[in-house]
Design a protein that fits this description.
The protein has about 280 residues and is α/β, with parallel strands linked by helices. It has helices spanning about 10-20, 20-30, 35-55, 80-95, 130-145, 170-180, 190-200, 225-230, 245-250, 265-275; strands at about 65-70, 80, 105-110, 115-120, 150-155, 160, 205-210, 230-240, 255-260. The protein folds into 3 domains: about 10-50, no CATH class; about 65-110, no CATH class; about 115-275, von Willebrand factor, type A domain (Rossmann fold, 3-Layer(aba) Sandwich).
């Protein structure tokens, strides 16, 4: 596959890809973190191209009809909803202090379409197939909701590869994920709360959190409470290691599918959308 320092034999890789797509993509994901700078760059470029091709094999998002709805306050969110904010305003007036923004509500125009937030579990073993699967999932999210998506990677902390309101090319997000390596504990409750914060910034009529994880939390926290707060939660669990994910999905009414590798991601998203 790499006959010389800084080289990548694309013919050999094409043969490996034809023999076992998931195995080849997993190998390429590992090469994307190689110590040799030229080999690393070649692997990332090739991985990015293949990841996009896989992600685009699924259907695109549907467009909906916009509507006005009540939302948490933000300066550009719309007109203040007096009825929904009256208690906060009365308390502030009685105390002679500004109202608490978290207690205020506005009414604003909701953009049609769907907002997505992808949560990638990078705790434990994050290499090979799992790494390639995460990269394809990130590209699939970007393809389905190009103007309204976010990508978070979590273990004991949360890394924002792309925030909901900030445009960022999908290939850069994929590259960031390809350099991740698994480590640390799993604070699933923290990750779910971070996803809430991202989706709260969206005005989309439909807001979905996509959790790519075995859902095996190793840090204390109310995972059930955080998961139950989503309008929609999709769980994508590894095939053969989905017991905890199935239990969480059943307890909060989430949709769940399992995948064996990166080539399953597009079909998994299509199945989740049809459930």
């Amino acid at each position: 596959m790499s006959p010389e320092v800084g080289e990548l034999d694309e013919v050999a890789f094409a043969e490996a890809l034809a023999a076992d797509q998931d195995e080849a993509l997993g190998m390429l994901a590992d090469l994307a973190g190689a110590t040799d700078e030229r080999l690393r760059a070649l692997a990332r470029r090739l991985a990015g191209r293949l990841v996009v091709e896989l992600a685009r094999s699924g259907p695109t998002r549907r467009r909906g009809v916009g509507k006005v709805r009540r939302m948490p306050y933000r300066p550009d969110g719309g007109d203040l909803d007096i009825d929904a904010s009256v208690d906060a305003l009365a308390i502030a007036r009685a105390g002679g202090s500004p109202p608490d923004p978290d207690e205020l509500r506005v009414r604003g125009w909701v953009k049609p379409g769907t907002a997505l937030c992808l949560l990638v579990d990078r705790s434990g073993s994050m290499s090979g197939r799992p790494l390639a699967t995460a990269a394809v999932a990130a590209s699939a999210v970007a393809f389905r909701a190009p103007a309204d998506h976010s990508v978070l990677a979590f273990a004991s902390d949360v890394i924002v590869a792309k925030s909901q309101e900030t445009p960022r090319p999908p290939d850069l997000v994929v590259n960031d994920l390809l350099v991740l390596r698994g480590h640390g504990t799993t604070d699933l409750a923290l990750a779910l709360r971070a996803a809430h914060q991202q989706l709260d910034r969206s005005r989309a009529a439909r807001r979905i959190a996509v959790l790519l994880s075995d859902c095996r939390a190793t840090v204390q926290g109310d995972v059930h409470e955080a998961a139950a707060r989503f309008d929609e939660l999709w769980v994508v669990a590894p095939e053969g290691d989905s017991v905890e994910a199935e239990a969480l999905a059943a307890s909060v009414g989430a949709r769940l599918v399992t995948v064996s590798g990166p080539s399953d991601v597009a079909d998994a998203f299509a199945k989740l959308a049809e459930m």
